[in-house]
């Protein structure tokens, strides 16, 4: 999942070298924290959060094949 988020995010932003995805697991789900450059935040979130929602939908679909719950958080 981490690699999937990283590839998608790097294709969206102007500074792909600043994309960092950290993965942590708690008792309920896998949490993926996506960090990008401040100037790229708008590109990752999109108008009214549409790109962020689409990213979460793709990751959720990929995780459902493995019967896991994945949460994607976009951090500053």
Q: Which tags fit this structure?
A:
76 residues, alpha+beta, GMP Synthetase, Chain A, domain 3, 3-stranded mixed β-sheet, RNA-binding protein KhpA, chaperone, KhpA, RNA-binding
What order do the SSEs take from the amino end to the carboxyl end, as H and E?
HEEHHE
The separation of the N and C termini measures 20 Å
**Overall mean pLDDT score?**
94
CATH topology: GMP Synthetase, Chain A, domain 3
Q: Report the CATH architecture.
A: 2-Layer Sandwich
Q: Helix coverage percent of residues? A: 40-55%
Can you identify the CATH class?
Alpha Beta
Query: What class do helices, strands and sheet pairing give?
Result: alpha+beta
Helices, by number, come to 3
Largest sheet, spatial ordering of strands: 1-2-3
The backbone outline, from C-alpha atoms, is globular
Low-confidence stretches: none
| Total E-strand runs | 3
Largest sheet: 3 strands, mixed
Radius of gyration: 12 Å
Would you identify the CATH H-level superfamily?
A: K homology (KH) domain
Short description:
It is built from 3 helices and 3 strands; from the N terminus they run H-E-E-H-H-E. With about 80 residues, the protein is α+β, with helices and mostly antiparallel strands. It has one domain: GMP Synthetase, Chain A, domain 3, CATH 3.30.300.20.
Write up what this structure looks like.
The chain has one domain: GMP Synthetase, Chain A, domain 3. It is about 40% helix and about 25% strand. It contains 3 helices and 3 strands. The chain has helices at about 1-10, 40-45, 50-65, and strands spanning about 20-25, 30-35, 70-75. Belongs to the KhpA RNA-binding protein family. It is found in: Cytoplasm. InterPro entries: KH_dom-like_a/b, KH_sf_prok-type, KhpA. One of its GO terms (molecular function) is RNA binding.
């Amino acid at each position: 999942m981490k690699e999937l988020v990283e590839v998608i995010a790097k294709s969206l932003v102007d500074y792909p070298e600043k994309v960092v995805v950290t993965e942590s697991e708690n008792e309920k789900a896998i949490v993926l924290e996506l960090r990008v450059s401040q100037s790229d935040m708008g590109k990752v979130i999109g108008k009214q959060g549409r790109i962020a929602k689409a990213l979460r939908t793709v990751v959720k679909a990929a995780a459902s094949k493995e019967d896991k719950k994945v949460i994607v958080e976009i951090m500053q």
